[in-house]
Amino acid sequence: MEPAHPRPDDLVRDHTIYACVMGSRAFGLATDASDTDRRGVYLAPTPLYWRFDKPPTHVEGPAREQFSWELERFCELALRANPNILECLHSPLVEHVSRTGRELLSLRDAFLSRRAHDTFARYAAGQHRKLEADVRVHGAPRWKHAMHMLRLLMSCRDLLRTGALTIDVGDRRESLLAVRRGEVPWPEIDRRMTRLAAETDEAATRTALPAEPDRARVEAFLTRTRRASALESL
Fold first, then answer.
1. 1: in domain
2. Which domain holds residue 60?
3. In angstroms, how far is the first alpha carbon of the chain from the final one?
């Protein structure tokens, strides 16, 4: 008789290959009130895909503020330059990494491409419009969101300029926290966002990043990993 289909929480507990802390703590923007946001990647055993009911592509929990993706879904999103996924791969706060997880991390450069300009900038532009709507309706933006949009634009600009994604804000911490505390007037924040967006667009015209991610390299890793998981079950 085949074993019972594992519960989603069991996939996270028993098959996580990479786990990290994200959010303000990873960005270097944590305060005493900050939550600890945990993100991870689990590798669902290959035999589970031979059943009608497939493993979940993501799992929320089991801990508070914890969210994990199945490896294939994580790779798909990373190849699309999803900002949250790429930043997860570059967290400076790694809590767990297996041998397969280390191989995933060794592929970080394979996911980076000029697509990041479109995805990061498009997301930031959408959030900028929401902040403008907040100002019109409430007289002020959501300060925390404004801070993170500035951070995201800086991160994207620097990625395009250097080819490396660094998510810790470093010595920009205090100026960004001043935004979060509402100490910077909205017109000044708006000017900063507009300037950063222009600098990001300009960096995209000069970047050394490839036009597309290295999909073949990532797919080879995923295929090899799935095959090894299948062999382990024999």
1. no
2. 8-112+213-232
3. 14
Q: How many domains does the chain have?
A: 2
Give per-residue pLDDT as tens, 18-36: 999 999 999 999 998 899 9
| Contact in structure between 50 and 233 (CB atoms under 8 Å) | no
> Are residues 60 and 119 part of one domain?
no
Q: Are residues 68 and 163 in the same domain?
A: no
Instruction: Give the separation between CA 57 and CA 109, rounded to whole angstroms.
Output: 23
Do 106 and 196 sit in the same domain of this protein?
A: no
Contacts of 17 (CB under 8 A, 6+ apart): 41, 42, 43, 71, 97, 98, 100, 101, 104
Q: What is the largest CA-CA distance in the chain?
A: 66
Angle between helices 143-162 and 186-204 (to 10 degrees): 20
Site of tokens 């191989």:
103
In the block, residue with structure tokens 């000029």: 114
Could you identify the residue written with the tokens 């479109």? 118
- Which sign, positive or negative, has the C-alpha torsion 23, 83, 155, 195? negative
Element at 157 (helix H, strand E): helix 143-162
The answer to whether the Cα torsion of 163, 168, 172, 178 is positive or negative is positive
Same domain, 80 and 24: yes
Each residue of 174-227: pLDDT tens digit?
999 999 999 999 999 999 999 999 999 999 999 999 999 999 999 999 999 999
- Which amino acid would we find at residue 41? V
Report the b/e string of 94-133 with b at 16+ CB within 10 A: eeebeebbeebeebeebbbbbbbbebbbebbeebbeebee
